[in-house]
Design brief:
It contains 7 helices and no strands. The chain has about 170 residues and is mainly α. This is TSPO protein.
Length: about 170
């Protein structure tokens, strides 16, 4: 029982690690660069992002635990469902360094479009295994839809500067 608690906590915390590191590394770029970008009127306030990501990472982390547990750990049956999860986590964690760190709006857009595809595939894969786990991903899918539209708008409305022309 004690070991299962540790697994539950570990899976739930894991997504937060990359999210926190992405924020920590890029935190100075937000007030210096991001605030100056042209953004649509429906862009959420900066204060919403940490709250949203805390909820989303917690949900996806716990859902990954449910899948891992239902498939008996790291078994051969878990390779695709948890492989999709791992791949989407990598793309999720790659977005802030691409967007804020490299200020590469085009690559951030490519990243999030690939991320969308992986999360849709992951959700479909997980639905067959554990419907609750798949349903825990629905808020993430909704947020990604908004974030993808926001990334597209920011990319379109803010032509990229030539390399070396940082403010």
């Amino acid at each position: 029982q004690g070991r299962m608690w540790a697994y539950t906590a570990g899976f739930t915390v894991l997504p937060h690690v990359g999210g926190f590191l992405g924020w920590f590394v890029n935190r100075k770029e937000i007030p210096l660069w991001y605030e100056k970008l042209k953004k649509p009127s429906w862009c959420p306030s900066r204060k919403v992002f940490p709250v949203a990501w805390t909820v989303l990472y917690t949900g996806m982390g716990y859902a990954s635990y449910l899948i891992w547990n239902d498939l008996g750990g790291c078994s051969s049956k878990a390779i695709i469902p948890l492989g999709l999860y791992g791949a989407q986590l990598v793309l999720n964690w790659a977005w802030p360094p691409l967007f804020f760190g490299a200020r590469n709006l085009k690559m951030a857009l490519v990243d999030i479009l690939c991320l969308d595809s992986l999360v849709i595939g992951m959700t479909c894969s997980w639905y067959r295994i554990n419907k609750v786990a798949a349903l825990l991903l629905v808020p993430y899918l909704g947020w990604l839809a908004m974030a993808t539209c926001l990334t597209i708008r920011i990319w379109k409305d803010n032509p990229e500067q030539k390399p070396g022309k940082r403010e």
